[in-house]
Design goal:
The complex is a heterodimer of chains A (499) and B (190). Chain A has helices at 3-14, 19-35, 40-48, 57-82, 93-102, 106-139, 144-161, 166-179, 206-222, 240-248, 251-265, 272-284, 300-323, 329-340, 355-378, 382-385, 390-409, 412-430, 435-458, 470-498; strands at residues 183-184, 191-192. Chain A has 499 residues and is mostly helical. Chain A has a two-stranded antiparallel sheet. By secondary structure, chain B is mostly helical. Chain B has helices spanning 3-33, 39-60, 67-74, 107-125, 127-141, 146-167; strands spanning 75-76, 85-86, 183-184, 187-188. In chain B, the strands form 2 sheets. Chain B has a two-stranded antiparallel ribbon with strand order 1-2. In chain B, a hairpin with a 2-residue loop joins strand 3 and strand 4 (187-188). Classes of the chains: A mainly alpha (499), B mainly alpha (190). The interface between A and B is large, with 72 and 81 residues.
Chain lengths: 499, 190
Amino acid sequence: MSAIDALLQAIGIVTSGYTPLLILLGLIIGIIVGALPGIGATVGMAILLPLTIVLEGVDAIIFLVTIYNGAMYGGSVSAILFNVPGTPAAAASTFDGYPMAQQGKAIDALTISATASAIGGFITQLMLLVLIPFLVTFILLFGSPEYFLMTILGIVLIIVVQQGSLVKGITAGAMGLLLTTIGIAPILPEQRYTFGMIVLYDGLDFVAALIGVFAVAEMFLLSKQEGGIAEQGIELTGNMISGVKTVVAHPLLILKSAVIGLLVGTLPGAGGEVSNFFAYAEAARGKVENGIEFGEGNILGVIAPESSNNATVAGALIPTLSFGIPGGGATAVLLGGLLMHGIVPGPDLFTEDIYIPYSIIVALLISAVLIFVLGMTIIRYAGIITKFDTNYIIPVIIVLSILGSFALRQNWVDVITVLIFGYIGYLMKIHNYSFIAFVLGMILGNLAETNFHRSLRIGGDSPLIFVRSPLSILIIILILVLLFGPYIQKTLKSAIRRS
Amino acid sequence: MDSKKLSIRLQNRTEEILLSLFFFFALYMLIGSFSFNNQVTRTFPQATAITVIVGTVLLMVRNYLPEPLHTLVTDSVSLMDSDTVESEEIMEEIPNRPATGYLPIQNSIFTALSATGYVILGYLVGFLIASPIYVLFYTFFFDTNWMVNILLAIISILLVYVGISLLNLPLNEGVLLTIGQVVSKEGLIL
């Protein structure tokens, strides 16, 4: 299938049936969950994931990815109005967005946020559209040994990009991989750890584990906080047209910040949380705008992070769709959604099924425009969302999580899985274990084992198959550098200090 | 013993529980793997179980390890940090407020236990009844606005009803009770 044919097919899919409604609905849900601190894209996507069973595969992924995109923008609402980022990706927007709101320019700041998010996202999604044919050539270099090693690299990357001890991270990741061995083995049809129970033949459902760790555990944590974030009303004043004009007058900043978002987003383990700070820091190196310093309501301090965090969505799709390595929690859920709908990341997705990545990107292009439209529409009502008391939100999310888990396979094993993984996820979060590595292990375990054994079969049962190609050797070197690099660096620094 | 020390002891205890859970689970799976017929089906569980066992043992005895090994086990590694730091120092401090209500227990414990109770109740009487009861119980416990509580309970019933009608889920059925006369696949029977 040629790229043009695939693109035309993708446009047909995205603009027909109820797909446009799904894009709109996904965006609205994403903006709402993004605006609520403690909720965010990951929880929103996790609890709605089981309900996507009724959708076609492509539609389901489009729905999930537009929630992700909407949440990237939604996080700025509470960041600007209340100095509390709805998502980590909006943290840098508080530096200048909140001071602008305090100076009576809340509407300007929210308009800048919506416009910059829309343009930044649109630019990078267009870039991705152009990049895909070149990506295909690179992805086709990867075979079973390389895919197995990429699984390990993905888990190691998640561990070292996030904070926590390496041993804790490796233990968590290995535990996730171990749990996937429950059920019928992927290579030979032998039952493992099923106790003769039919409900365990398919193993533990990783979607149920996802819901438990990301949604339920998060609600346990959220219950420690009290109240909503809006202690008192914020008067929304300012000018929308001025906000739009301000953004349009800084095209180079938007482009630079968007590219930062795209590049950072491709780094597994990094994401909007990182890109918005990089973009802000880069903008802050430039000139002061209208005599206003950064941190005191400088408009560039809102344009830069908001352009980059929505641009990150495009970047995060690259490793997720190519190698099954997510950028963070939200893309881990997206990966779970892909596998749940039988869409396997890898070469097939960029050859025979290339219309799927194109459909996702076309949907994101449309959603970028809709972010601007929705942002302009909801600005005057934006503050209402953040007044919800957490004690109202928590029981609803737990009900949705439990019902969603039951919807997966209509069996109680999944409901119990959600509850148990809620407890485990909570303990892992408070003790700084990498719960994303744990979930990633559960999502990728079967793929990893399949690729591992397939590789051995190709190599005549010799483990040397994993060092036969330059690409495999490069991946192994990367894994070793990531694992031992920080310790070597620390030892060298101590030695230098001593000398 | 003051409350802060007690809190730290409880936190350490919960980490020990987590590690013990991982350790015994991995040990069980390692031992169980030897009963599999094929080496091919044994390899992956054995490799991952051994990794988990070694990791959990190192973490459980980390305070007794000699200095270089202690550093290797406990130091945080992050591409975002220029120096590695003790991971225990990074632990997020969220004040754990006691619940406003009738029982002096922490909010997070109450949330976890009530969620468990909701699942058990749902199993016994079906989610159509369990969901509004759980929502009302939870929100009442935190002394929130009763009108909003009732609205949320109605929303929970609607969510269950959507599950029953659109997804054909038997959410009205419990082990002890089935609301078959009130709800059918065609809709509410009034």
